[in-house]
Amino acid sequence: MKKILEMNITNTNELEKAKEEYNTYLNEINEIGKSNLAQYIIFRKLVLDLFENSLKRNREDKYYDEKVIHNIIFPMKYTSDEIEIENENLWLIDERLAYHLYLASDLELKKFPLIESESKIRPDITIFNKKVTYTEGYETPFNSVVIIELKKPERKEYNDDSNPIGQIYEYIEEINAGTAMNKDGRQIITTNSTLFFVYIICDITNNIEKYAKRASLHKTPDNLGYIGYNDEYRANVEIISFDKMLKDAKKRNRILFDKLGIK
After folding, report:
1. DSSP H/E element including 146
2. Is it the case that residue 195 has pLDDT exceeding 50?
3. What is the sign, positive or negative, of the torsion defined by CA atoms of 97, 98, 99, 101?
4. What is the mean pLDDT of the segment spanning 250-260?
5. What is the dihedral of CA 50, 223, 164, 66, to 10 degrees?
6. Helix count (H) and strand count (E) of the chain?
7. What are the residues facing 30 on neighbouring strands?
C-alpha cells in the first residue's frame, strides 16, 4: 500500500498502473482476511461447544464449578493488560464488552491499578470504560463500569447473605467509595454520571426470582432472565440464565457458522 501511495501519477497510463497495483493488493488482503476470519469463526464455534459442555454434568455426575466457566470467558487472576484480546471471550455475554479501557478478573479491589482502595471485595469480572476527551492534561471520570458476577450452574441454595443482586450493589458502593487512579497515578473519579452495567450469570431458581422481584427487575421477553434499572446506584442490572447466555450467543454467531458450513 505504501508503494501505491508514493506513486507519482502524472498521466492516464500511470493512473491505470496504480489501479492495477491497488486491485492486486486488495485481492491479496481479501484472501488473507478471509483466512483469518475463517480461523476466528472456527475458534468461536469451539469456545461455544466448550461452554455448552461446561454446563453439563461431568464424569462424576456433578456440575462444573463456576471457575471453569469463568476461565472460558476470561482467565481468573489476570487483567486485560496481561491477556491478549484473542484470549478474551466476553462476546459470550455481550459483543460490546470486548472494547474497554481496563478489565480485572477475580482480583480484590485493593489490587486494582485503577482503584486506590483497601477493600478486599473481589468481583468476578470488573470492566472500566473511560470517556473520550480531547482536552490534554486532564483525566476524565469513568463513563461506565461493568460488573459480571458468575454462579455455579444449577446452584439452588441462595440466602440473603449470598443474594447476587445484593453482592453487586455492595461492589458498586465500594468502587464509588474508592479513589480511582489511572496507571500513571493520576486521579480519576467516578461521578454522578458514571453508569454501572451489571451482568449476573446464573440459573434462575425460586430465590433468584424472589430477589429479582424485590429489586423491581422485570422478566425478559423470552422468560430466561431479568432486567431492570436501579436509579439509586445508576445501575442497569441484567440476570442472564446459562440457557439464555448459550442460546443468545449461538444466535448471534449462527450466520457466521452458516457461511462456513459449520453445524
Report:
1. strand 142-150
2. yes
3. positive
4. 87
5. -10
6. 6, 9
7. none
pLDDT, mean of residues 177-199: 68
Query: 201 - beta bridge partners?
Result: 150, 240
Q: Whose CA is closest to 159, among 103, 205, 113, 104?
A: 205
CA 26 to chain centre: 33
CA proximity to 227, closest of 208, 207, 212? 212
For residue 215 the three cell numbers come to 429489586
For residue 125, list its beta bridge partners: 105, 148
Instruction: Name the DSSP class of 29.
Output: H
Over residues 106-110, mean pLDDT: 83
Q: Sign (positive/negative) of CA torsion 216, 221, 226, 231?
A: negative
Sign of the dihedral defined by the CA atoms of residues 68, 69, 71, 76, in that order:
negative
Query: If you search the block for the grid coordinates 474508592, which residue do you land on?
Result: 178
The model's pTM is 0.79
